[in-house]
Design a protein that fits this description.
Pnp Oxidase, Chain A, seven-stranded antiparallel β-sheet, three-stranded antiparallel β-sheet, 3 helices, 43% strand, globular, Split_barrel_FMN-bd, EC 1.5.1.-, Flavin_Rdtase-like_dom, oxidoreductase, oxidoreductase activity
């Protein structure tokens, strides 16, 4: 069913309007990791975008107030992990403020360039950070893929209407 847009009473742009609109947008769920001076950091991201095939580049957003930002702001390399629907707990852990993200419940390894690589994801990349572009209270990080593995098994985890979801057939 399609709905005709109500052009008589649109809402003025605001942070709340943007959040409300993007609750309608289903997005894949990724975890971004980096090695910081005090150890590994990471966060759940739904802003992951493929930017270029040649060279292989991607982007993601991170808030400058995020606990991972200081490490990501200095990191030369980051890890990008595509989560499967079996990893809802992992997505929740990396999304929760104050969580012990690399504690006993998280299986990970030191990967190429010293980047933390999470176990059991659908796919992962280690990327060289090419740029950090200011965008309001966030930064858009552009990164070039260096090495990775797309061979994980399962279906992707999605984020929609403020919660994690699985695909339906």
């Amino acid at each position: 069913m399609t709905a005709t847009p109500d052009l008589r009473s649109p809402r003025l742009a605001s942070p709340d309007l943007l959040r409300s609109v993007f609750r309608q947008h289903a997005a894949g769920v990724a975890v971004i990791t980096a090695q910081g001076p005090a150890g590994p950091v990471g966060f759940t991201a739904t802003s992951l975008v493929s930017v270029s095939a040649e060279p292989p580049m991607l982007s993601f957003g991170i808030g400058t107030g995020a606990s991972s930002w200081p490490a990501v702001s200095e990191a030369e390399h980051v890890g990008v992990h595509i989560l499967g629907e079996h990893q809802l707990d992992l997505a929740s852990t990396f999304a929760r403020s104050g969580a012990d993200r690399f504690g006993a419940g998280t299986r990970w390894y030191e990967g190429p360039e010293g980047v933390p690589v999470l176990d059991g994801t659908l796919a992962w990349l280690v990327c060289r950070v090419a740029a950090r572009v200011p965008a309001g209270d966030h930064r858009i990080v552009l990164a070039e893929a260096v090495v990775g593995d797309p061979s994980g098994v399962g279906r992707p985890l999605l984020y929609h209407q403020g919660r994690f979801n699985a695909l339906r057939d």
